[in-house]
Design brief:
- The complex is a heterotrimer of chains A (711), B (328) and C (378).
- Chain B is mainly α and 328 residues long.
- Chain B has helices spanning 2-28, 34-44, 51-61, 67-81, 94-129, 134-148, 151-166, 185-222, 225-232, 237-255, 257-274, 280-289, 293-321, 323-326, and strands at residues 86-87, 92-93.
- Chain C has helices at 16-19, 23-32, 35-52, 54-57, 162-198, 200-215, 218-227, 235-266, 269-276, 281-318, 329-334, 339-344, 350-372; strands at residues 77-78, 82-83, 88-89, 92-101, 106-130, 134-143.
- Chain C has 378 residues and is of the alpha+beta class.
- The chains are: A alpha/beta (711), B mainly alpha (328), C alpha+beta (378).
- Chains in contact: A-B, A-C, B-C.
- Chains A and C meet through helix 12, helix 13 and helix 15 of A and helix 6, helix 9 and helix 10 of C.
- The complex binds adenosine-5'-diphosphate, iron/sulfur cluster (2 copies) and magnesium ion.
- Magnesium ion binds at residues 51-52, 191 of chain A.
């Protein structure tokens, strides 16, 4: 138990409200949280639950018109002193001297959090100079030391660079250096790794864990990702709609979750081998419509009417520091948190992950030596000064009825490949061949040379789901018009018939057909994604290219959409090309997985094989960066230094060699070809057979969430 | 940076060529030419002009050649000898007429520009930082009114007020005794004493629109994450606003500097006519009306060039202020 | 990757009505909250009504002159005069008497409180065709005795009624703004659209032309072009030529907006989705893209009208734009060109007030429209 001398920050009954046109938003509604010296506390929850606002309230930098309306924030820089930060004037000298010096903060967006108009050095040393009377020279020295500390290779040189000339990971490192330069006692990190690639995220997590131990500082870490929590937290607070619903040590919360929300969050994480995911129904209610009683009752599987919708649960202490806000834990409660029958579906053999050798199935789409290069144009006359080789010689086949996953860091050409299949880009070289009824049947379509009939048929058979549920729906058209457009322009249905078919599609994707005449703005992100799926489904396609379809969604909604995609696949015998940067998602949904790096495929194998016996060093590194929500699983991590190579100027030989820990001389000259190592496993590495690579560490599939069975 | 400037300078060349062509085209648009006008004048005065005389006159002024030829002669003379041709009407070399007026136009435009900045920036900052305060409402309202008054009307009203209530006539850039006097310290002081009225007249609309733009830009910038970053570093609010959001908000503004400057050069034409300033405006109007082609053409060309140079200047200033442009 | 807040305030429209609301309803809802813009909109509507009903609203025809009343000062209208003999309100205006100013050696009109000329509403006066169709001689207001002087805003050099002339001027000045902007819009959408659609060389060329036109000072350019209009050209053609001249520069701003929107939209996912749906280029344009920037275009157009009005006024004021007998605000202000006439008859500046009101109203309206143009971002 934390004693008061150890307490660095003691948040008591914090309330933050935003008066808006639609009523008062209670973003934070009575939060109690204690942060001990040298410990890491994670606040976790879906977006809109008030995590960021809590973090910002500590330094009183909440966006207008937000205001702390009640509560205190006791901060003890040393065991003898104690100030209530909430009582200090936001612009006063005292709070200013704490900001940056005692408590520092880093944010999600490393790009927009740094001003592009000043050098990195300027922005970091400024913090030093406002807090202590040091010379410019000394500030420079300390800044460079801080940059070195966060693992920046040439800190001297970086000092004079501008933020926009750096990669995302570098920028986030610079942000961390800026936060640490005055050796704060508390570092508040608001989703600092969310915008980064998995590999970079892993590096930053390692770095911060190391620094925290070295500097003996406390961390308040805000995240929506339970994997990150398991990785870094000592203590965890789960937040829902402005309140903490469960709190305890990381082992307590992740190994024996008590609150139905925590349990549901854990269960909805996609993982290998799981069939249907246990998604949480509905979505986080809008802040103007906070439910009465237990805030979670609208989505809780155990909610009991008459109780949960009336009585507001208080925080209940269970054991050493573990507490939960649920009526089931009130002594003599009639509520029982038993496994709902829905859980049984998890092992539905029909939906379960299959590792069939895909060879048996007919080929639906074949890609050969596909290249897509974009000219780089400069200057007054648009001279072409080079080419971005977004896709640079890719060959693969998609079998009917399978889900082929496509992974890789951002910028490695996944989206370009998907768009090219959809004919949104023209290939620079190579061929795409589509076999409407499988290869054996002989009818072939080449999207580069379609005849008149095929020009209509091809886009009906290949459809696409977009990543951004906001940008991909025209806000000015109703749902009927959006979903029906493809039917209408292709003369597949008109009038009444059109409406009937759209209603049917809406029902299929789990939307009420009553919403036919609504506009997209009336829907949440998850619902919009369902609309996007219905649109893709409308002309009865054979192949759907799904480009990061769940990346913009919260975990609970993500699980709903993944389940939906699986159901639709078996109902309509769909084939998916599923693009994602999230290996958990890919491992969950794919039959085979294809790994891409700088415009080329480096490995292609059945999912099970790829995750258990990877044979390309890049795959190995990607797998090692995947975070497991089990705090007891801490695999050795392979640090991938630097960023993805510039596709306009890829390194000679194997494009991966500058980051490869097995690279040898040969790799620098000779480009490895993609070749089969077994009949179903293809690798592009000279040493594929010689290397023994690490498989993915045990993921959730084996994590027995020992939900404490007390109530 | 040097490369950038050289590039910008090279880009100016086609623009300048285009300007000279457009200027020359404009002055050749009206039907007839200067000689027709002389002939008409003499006829009204009762003098007969023979065709031979008219042809001689044309030959004398070089109007008998083809338009293309005239253009080439005109432009090459400018580039080779700085000779802008001869004003038919004043019977003087154009260059003797234009330079002083151009200089005064430049002086007026630049001082109005400074006036705009000095007045608009503090008001804009105030309006944004104290959003929805009484001061902000007043500034916003006056801003709208400011852009809605045509500047010649403002000039007329000011003239009327000072005539009616102070019994003096405003107008001109010099007191009568200095108009034709050679330049001296006293003349410069006199000029400065007269300059402020046209400066205000010319600057009002610009000031008003600048306050509005600055306010809007600053409001955008104030909610950017880097401002919060600066705040969490512990910087004092006033320092922070100047260093981050203000500096950012000024960029779009610097890039629009040329727009404002062009408007000033342009607007000064009319104001000058109303206030009878000794700048380019009145003489240009007169030259255009009397088809004094070289004078008019030179004015249009020089004013356009002034604007182009202003654009160049603002681009360079922007590149200097914004590293993103330098690094592009 | 970005995490969207699935429950932002803007989305909390849960009423069935809000959820079924199309773009224009949302624009209107946002616009309505902008009070100054509503006021601006009201005045704009009034001004355009004046355009249509000028003959009816003006007490006299604009050309009616009277040598007797040159430079007569404004009279005030006594509306609430209770005529006890008739038991009814009988509004009137005062007449004039002549005073001789011996110092200046000039005759001056002054309002004579002794004389009363009764005034009525819905009175008969000069005849005209309403909306160019119905022959009538009804006027909103006028003296009961057609020969009696009524100069609510004073008289000019020829004894013409400034009020009537200003009302007629509204017609030309407001419509020239609209026509000029219409022409600019046509050019702007055509060239901006070409630029945005073809990109590459076409775009480059059009952009250079725009940059060039924007870098030349507009007024000297206009003057240069306006002077070229020969004196003998009939008024209607002058009117048309002037709008053309104003549009020479006016289209550039609109073209930039159109092109910018076009480029931004082209890469939107929903436009890609429309392509994948198999829509033809025309359908993508008109069904999916144009509605997305229609509201922006309307706002930009509204904000461009004042510029046109100001430009016409300035040119006419200099005597090189519209010419008498055409009546526009700028032409009227020409009467107030020198300090002599302003000091004797300051009311000649009143058409200037009309200019300010019109421009102000349009600016407020446009500003509100611009804010409301995209109802989907908060
Ligand atoms: N500037 C603001 N105006 C109105 N409401 C806001 C504002 N900022 C945040 N909120 C509301 O506060 C709640 C909590 O937001 P936030 O702390 O960002 O959630 P999280 O970080 O958990 O995703 C949300 O419902 C959000 O809509
Ligand atoms: S109180 Fe009821 S609704 Fe709330 S979490 Fe517990 S069981 Fe679910
Ligand atoms: S070819 Fe060489 S550099 Fe490339 S992945 Fe294999 S070992 Fe590494
Ligand atoms: Mg957040």
């Amino acid at each position: 138990m934390v004693t008061s001398a150890d307490t660095l920050l003691d948040i008591r009954n914090l309330h933050v409200q935003f008066p808006t046109d639609h009523g008062v938003v209670k973003a934070v509604d009575g939060v109690d949280l204690m942060i001990a010296r040298g410990r890491t506390v994670c606040v976790v929850g879906e977006s809109g639950c008030g995590k960021s606002v809590t973090a910002r309230a500590i330094l009183q930098v909440i966006d207008a018109p937000g205001r702390i309306t009640a509560g205190s924030l006791f901060f003890s820089a040393s065991p003898e002193t104690r100030v209530d930060l909430a009582a200090l004037p936001p612009r006063g000298r005292q709070l200013r001297s704490i900001r940056g010096r005692e408590i520092a903060m880093i944010y999600q967006e490393p790009m927009s959090s740094l001003s592009p108009l000043y050098t990195i050095g300027n922005q970091i040393s400024e913090a030093i100079r406002w807090h202590s009377p040091v010379s410019q020279q000394e500030a420079r020295q300390r800044t460079i030391a801080a940059l070195e500390q966060v693992g920046i290779p040439q800190p001297q040189e970086l000092f004079d660079r501008y933020p926009f000339t750096l990669s995302g990971g570098m920028r986030q490192r610079a942000m961390i250096a800026m936060a640490l330069v005055c050796s704060p006692k508390l570092l508040i990190a608001d989703e600092p790794t969310t915008a980064l690639d998995v590999t970079t995220q892993a590096n930053i997590l390692d770095l911060l864990r190391k620094l925290q131990a070295e500097l003996q500082m406390s961390l308040l870490w805000i995240t929506h990702d339970l994997g990150v929590v398991a990785e870094i937290a000592h203590e965890v607070a789960v937040m829902y709609l402005g309140k903490i619903v469960e709190q305890g040590t990381v082992e307590q919360v992740l190994h024996s979750p008590n609150h139905p929300y925590t349990r549901a969050l854990l269960r909805s994480i996609p993982r290998r081998g799981a069939g249907r995911l246990a998604a949480i129904r509905g979505n986080v209610p809008s802040p103007q419509q906070r439910p009465g009683g237990c805030l979670f009752h609208t989505r809780c599987d155990f909610a009991s009417t008459g109780l949960c919708d009336r009585v507001e649960p208080a925080m209940i202490q269970l054991e050493d520091g573990h507490s939960v806000r649920c009526l089931a834990y009130v002594p003599h409660s009639p509520l029982r948190l038993e496994q709902p029958p829905a859980e049984a579906a998890a092992t539905d053999p029909h939906l379960a992950f299959s590792d069939l050798p895909a060879e048996g199935r007919p080929v639906l789409l074949a890609v050969e030596q596909l290249k897509v290069h974009f000219p780089i144009q400069r200057g007054f006359f648009n001279r072409t000064t080079g080419h971005v080789r977004a896709v640079d010689g890719v060959s693969f086949q998609i079998y009917a009825g399978e889900t082929l996953g496509l992974v890789g860091e951002s910028g490695c050409g996944k989206t370009t490949l998907g768009h090219t299949l959809m004919r949104l880009y023209a290939p620079t070289a190579g061929e795409i061949r589509y076999y409407p009824r499988g290869k054996a049947d002989g009818d072939t379509m080449n999207p580069a040379h379609l005849n008149k009939r095929q020009r209509k048929q091809y886009p009906r058979e290949l459809r696409m789901i977009f990543q951004d549920p906001y940008g991909s729906l025209n806000p000015r058209l109703s749902i009927l018009e959006i979903i029906g457009e493809v039917l209408k322009v292709n003369n597949l249905a008109q009038g009444r018939e059109l409406e009937r078919r759209v209603r049917e599609l809406m029902a299929k994707v789990g939307l009420s057909p009553d919403y036919l005449h609504r506009y997209p703005h009336a829907f949440s992100g998850g619902q919009r994604q369902r609309i996007g799926i219905a649109r893709a489904l409308a002309p009865r396609p054979a192949l759907i290219v799904a480009d990061e379809p769940v990346s913009a969604l919260d975990v609970s909604v993500q699980a709903q959409i993944l389940n939906l995609l699986k159901e639709l696949q078996s109902e309509f015998s769909l084939t998916y090309l599923f693009i994602s940067h999230d290996l958990n998602v890919v491992s969950h949904i794919s039959d085979r997985v294809m790994v891409m790096y700088v415009g080329r495929i480096v490995e292609l194998a059945p999912t099970q094989t790829l995750f258990q016996r990877p044979q390309h060093p890049y795959t190995e590194a990607l797998l090692s960066a995947v975070l497991s929500p089990d705090p007891s699983v801490r695999p050795p991590r392979i640090q991938l230094e630097g960023g993805v190579a510039d596709p306009a100027n890829p390194p000679a030989g194997c494009a991966f060699h500058p980051r490869c820990r097995y690279a040898q001389d040969r790799c620098r000259h000779e480009t490895p070809a993609l070749r089969p190592v077994t009949s179903v496993h293809w690798v592009a590495c000279h040493f594929a057979e010689e290397l023994t690579l690490h498989p993915m560490a045990l993921a959730v599939s084996t994590l027995q969430t020992q939900e404490s069975d007390r109530p | 940076m040097v490369r950038y400037i050289v590039k910008r300078l090279l880009l100016m060349v086609p623009t300048l060529v285009a300007i000279s062509i457009v200027s020359f085209t404009i002055i050749n648009l009206p039907p007839g030419d200067f000689v027709d006008r002389i002939v008409a004048q003499r006829l009204t005065a009762g003098e007969a002009v023979t065709a031979q005389e008219a042809a001689d006159l044309r030959a004398f002024y070089g109007l008998d050649r083809s338009v293309g030829e005239q253009y080439v002669v005109w432009v090459s003379n400018i580039f080779v000898r700085g000779d802008f041709g001869r004003s038919f009407r004043w019977d003087l070399p154009v260059r003797d007429l234009v330079w002083e007026r151009m200089a005064l136009t430049l002086l007026l435009s630049v001082s109005s520009l400074l006036f705009i900045w000095v007045v608009a920036i503090p008001i804009g900052i105030f309006s944004a930082v104290r959003r929805y305060s009484l001061g902000d409402y007043i500034a916003t309202f006056l801003g709208f009114v400011g852009v809605s008054i045509p500047n010649f009307l403002l000039a007329l009203v000011l003239m009327f007020i000072s005539f009616r209530y102070f019994g003096q006539s405003v107008g001109g850039l010099f007191s009568p005794q200095y108009i034709n006097a050679p330049w001296s310290l006293a003349k410069i002081l006199d000029l400065l004493g007269h300059l402020w009225i046209p400066m205000i007249v010319l600057g009002t609309a610009g000031t008003a629109s600048l306050v509005r733009t600055l306010r809007a830009n600053l409001l955008d910038e104030l909610s950017r994450p880097y401002v919060t970053t600066a705040r969490t570093k512990g910087l004092p609010e006033s320092w922070l606003i100047v260093k981050y959001p203000l500096r950012h908000a000024l960029n779009p503004f610097v890039s629009d500097l040329n727009g404002i400057f062009v408007d000033l050069v342009s607007g000064s034409t009319i104001v000058a006519v109303v206030l009878s300033l000794q700048t380019t405006g009145p003489l240009l109007l007169d030259a255009l009306r009397s088809e004094d082609m070289f004078l008019a053409g030179s004015f249009i060309m020089l004013m356009s060039m002034l604007a182009v140079v202003g654009t160049l200047f603002s681009d360079i200033l922007l590149a200097w202020l914004d590293p993103r442009i330098r690094y592009r | 990757m970005q995490i969207h807040n699935s429950s932002t305030a803007g989305e909390a429209i849960d009423s069935a009505e809000g959820a079924r609301a199309g773009q224009w309803w949302l624009v209107w809802r946002k616009f309505r909250r902008h009070r100054l813009a509503m006021i601006g909109g009201f005045f704009t509507v009034v001004l355009y009504l004046v355009v249509f009903f000028a003959e009816f609203l003006a007490p006299f025809s604009p050309d009616r002159y009277s040598a007797e009343y040159t430079y007569a000062p404004p009279q005030s209208l006594h509306l609430l005069h209770w005529d006890s003999s008739q038991g009814w309100f009988s509004p009137y205006v005062n007449g004039y008497k002549i005073e001789v100013n011996y110092e200046q050696g000039r005759r001056l009109f002054v309002v004579d409180p002794e004389k009363r000329h009764p005034v009525g509403f819905w009175v008969q006066g000069d005849s005209y065709r309403l909306l160019g169709v119905w022959q009538t001689d009804l006027h909103l207001i006028g003296p009961l005795d057609p020969a009696a002087p009524m100069y609510l805003l004073g008289a000019d050099r020829l004894g013409r009624d400034v009020l009537s002339r200003t009302i007629y001027g509204t017609r030309v000045s407001m419509s020239i703004g609209l026509v000029g902007v219409g022409l600019s819009l046509f050019l702007g959408i055509l060239l901006g659209g070409l630029s945005g659609y073809f990109a590459g060389w076409t775009d480059n060329l059009i952009q250079r032309v725009i940059e060039f036109l924007q870098s030349i000072p507009s007024i000297p350019l206009w003057i240069g072009l306006a002077v070229a209009i020969p004196a003998e050209v009939p008024p209607v053609q002058v009117y048309f030529l002037i709008t053309v001249i104003l549009s020479v520069v006016g289209w550039t701003g609109l073209a930039r907006v159109v092109r910018g929107r076009f480029f931004a939209l082209r890469t939107e996912d929903f436009v890609k989705a429309a392509r994948l749906d198999g829509c033809s280029t025309l359908r993508i344009l008109f069904r999916h893209m144009v509605p997305s920037f229609m509201s922006h275009i309307i706002a930009v157009v509204t904000l461009a009208i004042p510029g046109m009005i100001l430009a016409e006024t300035s040119l006419s004021f200099l005597g090189i734009g519209l010419r008498p007998p055409t009546v526009s605000w700028g032409v009227l202000l020409q009467e107030a060109q020198n300090i002599r006439s302003i000091s004797t008859a300051p009311w000649l500046l009143l058409p200037g007030l009309a200019v300010v009101i019109a421009v102000l109203a349009l600016n407020f309206l446009g500003d509100g429209l611009r804010d409301a143009a995209d109802p989907y971002t908060v």
